Amino acid sequence: MTKKLLSFIAVTILLLFVSLYSMITGSIEVGMGELIAGLFTGINENVEIIKDLRLPRIIIALFAGACLSVSGVLLQAVMRNPLAEPGIIGVASGAGFASILMITFFPTLFFYTPLFSFFGGAVAFLLVYMFAWKSGLDPLRMILIGVAVNAIFTGLSQLLSSMNASSMMSGISVTTSTLTMKTWNDVQIILLYGSIGLLLSLLVYSWCNHLGLRDKTLRNLGFQVNRARLVISLIAVLLASVATAVAGMFAFVGLIIPHIGRILVGNDHKLLIPFSAIAGALLVLVADTIGRTILSPIEIPASIIMAVIGGPFLIFLLRKSDRIYGN
Amino acid sequence: MEIKDITFAYQDNIKRLHNIAAEIAIGKITTILGPNGSGKSTLLGVLTNNLAPQQGSVILEGKTIDKYKPKELAKKLGVVHQQNSAPHDMTVEKLVYYGRLPHKKPFNQHGEEDDAKVKWALERVGLYERRHTPMDALSGGQQQRVWIAMALAQDTPYLFLDEPTSNLDIFYQYEIMELVKELCEEENLTIVMVLHDINQAIQYSHEIITMKDGEIIAHGVPEEIITVQLMQEVYNVNVVIKQDPELGMYMVPIGI
Q1: Domain covering B1-76+156-226 assigned CATH 3.50.30.20 in the classification
Q2: Which of A263, B76, B160, B209 has CA 20 to 30 A from A144's CA?
Q3: What is the C-alpha to C-alpha distance for residues A284 and A67, in angstroms, rounded to an integer?
Q4: Domain range summary for chain B, segments of one domain joined by +
Q5: Which one is predicted more confidently, A146 or B247?
């Protein structure tokens, strides 16, 4: 119990610390006192710039991280597979494609982008699920089909971008995420849809726990397995789509964080879901802060940093995947 | 429980069960025997509403089982499947609480009755002292007893067990069989199970159903139906059947 509690306290404190550090560090540097005073009075010019440019970026990084990791937790529960992750199985690229499609053809419906990407993500998820399901989801087959679906949607997105290269600036970059140029409008979107998704995920934690048992066993307990799967999947797709629509593609967040969460707080989703939300927010914010400060003034997109950390991690997980979940 | 003319096939349309009809005796232990692929597990799947037959029906207390709401059926039938899995860090007690799922109303925490039933189930299988142990710290035989406890916590009049002794050492096999016997005698449960071991079936069952190629070959009291001819017909094995004043009836295979 103490280990779980400590883990929660540690990530929360780290999150607060990194958020503050991220606010005062970068091309414009201010002191902590200056920042707090400036936020309240609104007369410090530097703080105003930070408020307009850096704060939205930080909030979006936090939400994107939380949404993607929780989405990973939910997909892992539904597919009963520790390797399920919105990036790997193509949900994110499906969502990304849909939002690019939307921005290309209906740029005025900007605020509804997450809804579009939700459909894109749902289609990708359905494809993977249908093709990988053969009386159970074989982990390897799921990953392979996910890679294929991912490639298809990434390709389609790239096709669309190269067809109208001129409008690309207004859209979302295809394979990487850029958290630059984010405004309070973007914050509004991710705040609204992201909060809905995160709240819903907390409501279904016991269903996620149930899915740790076999379908047959659950059915004989009178539990409606398929209904639970459908609802949880929809929440997972919503979370991944919102994050992708606003922040772009981040690979591996939904893989690394839940895995660490399982080690630190266990497989009980009552703890795993909130822990993953906090830790995911922390990870993406750290990646973004490193990205924009380490080689300043050059910015490395947070997603690139995530990919560099996440790739080896996936290999590591695949090597020991038969041990996870105790089978 | 009445089984009425069940015919079942998977998607490949090969019939796995033909015209199965039988009556399961209330308050007794009934064992389904048969060689691999004879359809015994399929029959158990149909009886527990996990597989839907193309023809025929299973009638439980005057109502076909597919007409029950999932939770209502789960209050009648407890099932222990052959293969089970749980998150490795789940404790014994948490797992057994799953048995209370059909009795729970949405968003309700478990009440006194749930606690009492779980305690009773854990004591019944002799694992109450180990209730806080995670599943992966238990032996195969203990894990099997946890799954049985989960089905017991469901508080059902019927208990179905699919090869409850497979992959267990002989001591644990008999531990499970003794438990099954006690549950039938003391808790008045109706038990239907699939077994591989013919002598265990003879020793512990009130009735035996023998199957071959998706059909019931014989159904009745072990002493009456287990014969040299039946073993030859069902398993293609020559056996000697003996009566011992202490052991009762037993069977020894002698060749093919």
Answers
A1: no
A2: A263
A3: 11
A4: 1-76+156-226, 87-155
A5: A146
Q: Which residue has the higher pLDDT, A297 or A60?
A: A60
Specify the 3-state DSSP secondary structure of B63. strand
Residue A221: list chain B partners with CB under 8 A: 74, 98-99, 101-102, 154
Mean of the per-residue pLDDT values of chain A: 85
pLDDT of residue A314 exceeding 80, the answer is no
Q: Which residue of B has its CA nearest to A206?
A: B107
Query: pLDDT tens for residues A205-217?
Result: 999 999 999 888 9
Paired tokens of B253? 């295979």
Query: Which 3 state secondary structure label does DSSP give A177?
Result: coil
3-class DSSP assignment, residue B125:
coil
Residues in B 105-164 with any Cβ partner in A closer than 8 A = 135-136, 154
Q: Determine if the pTM surpasses 0.95.
A: no
What CA–CA distance (Å, rounded) separates A145 from A135?
16
Q: How close, in Å, is residue A208 to chain B by CA atoms? A: 11
Kindly list the structural domains of chain A, giving each domain's residue range(s) and its CATH number in brackets, ordered by start: 2-27+57-326 (1.10.3470.10)
What ipTM describes this predicted complex? 0.88
Cα dihedral angle (B59, B61, B67, B71), rounded to 10 degrees? -130
Cβ contacts of B88 on chain A, cutoff 8 Å? 267, 325-326
A-B Cβ pairs (cutoff 8 Å, strict): 64
pLDDT 10s digits, B155-171: 999 999 999 998 888 99
What is the tally of helices (H) and strands (E) in chain A?
14, 0
Contact A222 B84 (CB under 8 A): no
- Tell whether the model's pLDDT for residue B114 goes beyond 60: yes
Under a CB-based contact definition with an 8 Å cutoff, are residues B7 and B55 in contact? yes
Side-chain half-sphere of A246: how many Cα atoms within 13 Å?
34
pLDDT at A1: 62
Tokens 């020894």 label which residue?
B252
Chain B contact set for A266 (CB, 8 A): 89
SS3 A327: coil
Lowest mean pLDDT among A13-22, A166-175, A240-249: A166-175
Question: Beta partners for A58?
Answer: none
Give the tens place of pLDDT for each residue, B192-210: 999 999 999 999 999 999 9
What residues in chain A have their Cβ under 8 A from chain B's Cβ atoms?
A: 210, 212-214, 216-217, 219-224, 266-267, 325-327
